[in-house]
């Protein structure tokens, strides 16, 4: 459901102190159990990966490290993170979701490759003749 994904992105952005547009969530269904009586989905195990993209500036590296440190802090209080994300999802969807956090992976900071300098433009001067 797109509203779940969006609300997870907004909830994580709020926890990390970044704009919601800077956070991209990828949800992957890991396993599910179906209730036999009504064949309704009773629970699902979903992996959620978050990517935070920052605009390149002179402070990008330090900001990225601050965000990585915040992720580490969130991992020590995953119950509060689960509560906050559950609230965000249920508010956005009027649903009755329960989020349990099993693991918070260590944040990985990736620096973009520098853009190579452009090759020089060809000159309009004729090439000198060989001697």
Structure summarized in a few sentences:
The chain has 131 residues and is an alpha+beta fold.
Estimate percent helicity. 25-40%
| Beta-strand share of residues | 15-25%
How much is the radius of gyration in Å? 23 Å
Q: Strands of the biggest beta sheet: in what spatial order?
A: 1-2
Number of helices: 3
Number of strands: 2
Main sheet properties: 2 strands, antiparallel
Order of helices and strands: HEEHH
The unreliable regions are 35-40
**Structural class from helices and strands?**
alpha+beta
Oligomer: single chain
Distance between the termini: 73 Å
Indicate the mean pLDDT: 80
* Rough outline: elongated
Structure description:
With 131 residues, the protein is an alpha+beta fold. The protein is 37% helix and 18% strand. The protein has 3 helices and 2 strands, in the order αββαα. It has helices at 2-16, 60-76, 78-93, and strands at residues 23-34, 41-52. Strand 1 and strand 2 (41-52) form a beta hairpin.
Keywords:
elongated, two-stranded antiparallel ribbon, 3 helices, single chain, 131 residues, alpha+beta
Walk me through the topology.
Blueprint: H1 2-16, E1 23-34, E2 41-52, H2 60-76, H3 78-93
Antiparallel strand pairs: 1-2
Helix pairs in contact: 1-3
